[in-house]
Design brief:
Helix content: 10-25%
Largest sheet: 5 strands, mixed
Strand content: 15-25%
Distance between the termini: 19 Å
Strand order of the largest sheet: 1-4-7-9-10
Length: 114
């Protein structure tokens, strides 16, 4: 979870880490043998109340996720996404404003973000 990110109440980050198809072990102790995908919430995001974030997605910097949404796919930077499943409904900034905002947040390091 990146810096300056706000998490509202009852946010869930879900890992799909039990193997329901292993006939040799109960599901409670059956874990997949493969490496798990990383879930990332970048900097300066606002995650609304009761949002569920599924395993392996990336929520891009500066994004806003509306309350009660379920994030099943990655969200691009500076997006506003809502719904079940969450869909991008608009961008917070145009390209020029995104670059200026990145520079405000990250200074000279903002060049490596794009």
């Amino acid at each position: 979870i990146g810096d300056l990110t706000m998490l509202s109440s009852e946010v869930l980050v879900i890992g799909q880490d039990h193997d329901a198809f292993n006939s040799e072990l109960p599901m409670r102790i059956a874990f997949p043998k493969t490496e798990r995908p990383l879930t990332v919430i970048e900097s300066d995001c606002w995650i609304g109340a009761r949002v569920t974030i599924m395993e392996g997605v990336r929520i891009g910097r500066g994004s806003v996720i509306g309350a009660n949404s379920v994030v099943t796919k990655s969200i691009p930077p500076y997006s506003i996404a809502v719904g079940i499943p969450a869909k991008v409904i608009k961008q917070r900034f145009n390209d020029q404003d995104m670059k200026a905002y990145d520079k405000y947040l990250y200074g000279d390091k903002s060049e490596v973000l794009n």
